[in-house]
Amino acid sequence: MNKIGNDTYSRNELMALVSSVPKDVEICDVTLRDGEQTPGVVFTKHEKINLAQELENIGVEIIEAGFPVVSEAEKDTIKSISGMGLNARICCLSRALISDVESALECDVDMVSIFIAISDLHLKHKYRRTREEMIQCAMNTIEYAKDHGLAVRFAAEDATRTDIEILKSAFSSAEEYGVDYVSIADTIGILNPTTSYNIVSSIKQEIKTPICIHCHNDLGLATANTLSAAEAGAKQLHTTVNGIGERAGNAALEEVLISLMVQYGIDQYNTENITKLSAMVQEYSNVYTAPNKAIVGKNAFSHESGIHVMAILENPKTYELFSPELVGGKRNLIAGKHTGMKALKGIVADIGYTLTDQELNALIEKVKNCTEAKKGISRNRLENIIKGIKGEK
Asked: 327 lies in which domain range?
C-alpha cells in the first residue's frame, strides 16, 4: 500500500531541463563479452540468451555477444543469440586475424569488432611487432570481413595512451578500407571528461566514419567520460550492466541511459526494466552492487532523514530527480536514527496504519533501540513492530 502520490518529474518535465547535444547516439552493450571478463564471472548459454533478450527489451541497438575464438561453447552461444531474431545487431570480438573473422562468420553475427593496440607500450611488451606490421594485419583483416558482408568496427585498444596523430593515421587507413566505425578504447581508464571530449573532437575533425567510445572505470569516471565523448560527437557508446568488467569495470548501462535522458533528452530506451536487468546480472554474475549505486542500488530511492521523509511525503520531487518507476524501482521510506516523530507518523500512514500518540511513542522508542544496536528497520520489520504494539498477529 502506497499513500504517496506520483508527483515526480515526468519524462516531459525532465526533457525541459536538458542540455543541447547531438541526438544521434546508439548503445553497444558489452556485458556478455567485456562484462564476462570480470574476474570469476562466467555466464551460461541460457543466462546469455536471457540477458540478450532483456537488452533487446530495453532497446539497446547493438549487443556484443562474445569472443568466438575463446571456445566452441562460446561460438555456439553467440550463434544462438544471432539466431534469436532480435532487432539489436549482434556483434562479436575479433583479433586482427583472418581466422578470427572466419569464426565470427560461422556465428552469423552482423558486425565484427577488429581490435589492435598501437600504443608504444603495447607494441613493445604485448605484440613485439612494429606498428606498421600491426596496422597492415588489421587492414587485411578488415578487408576480408568487409568482403564477406560483415559490418566492421575497427577498435584501437589503449587508444588513450597512443599518440593522437598515430591514432588518426590508423583510423584514416581503416576509413579507406570502408570500416563502419572507428572505436576509441580507454583501456586503462585514464581519461577525464575534458580529455575525453578533446580526443573525440580532434579525431572527428579528420575522420568522417562514426566514432565509438569504450570507457573503463579505473578512476570512477567511465560514465562521465562516455557522456563527454557523446557531447563531442561520438555516436556509439559502450556500456555494461551495473558497470561490471575487468578491474573496476566499464561505463554502466543504467547510468548512461538515464543520464542521456535527464541531461540530454535522449529518450529512446525502455528504462522501466533497468532494475530487473540489474538484478538478473547480479544473480548470474554473483557480483552485487553497492547499496548506494546510482539508479539500481537498494538505497537509490531510500529516505531516512526526518526532514527528507516529510518532504517526500508532501512531494517526491523534493529529493528525487526522477521517480523509481522510471527504472522499475521502488521508493523506500526508512525508520531509523534520524527519523523524528512527524516523519515516523508519515511512514506509518504510508504503510497503512494509524497509531495513537502513545503507540507512536512506543514505536519510536523501539526504532531507536534497534538502530542503536545497528539492526536495520526494513518496511516489513517496521510493520511487524507496529503489529506487535497494536497487539495484532
From this structure: 302-390
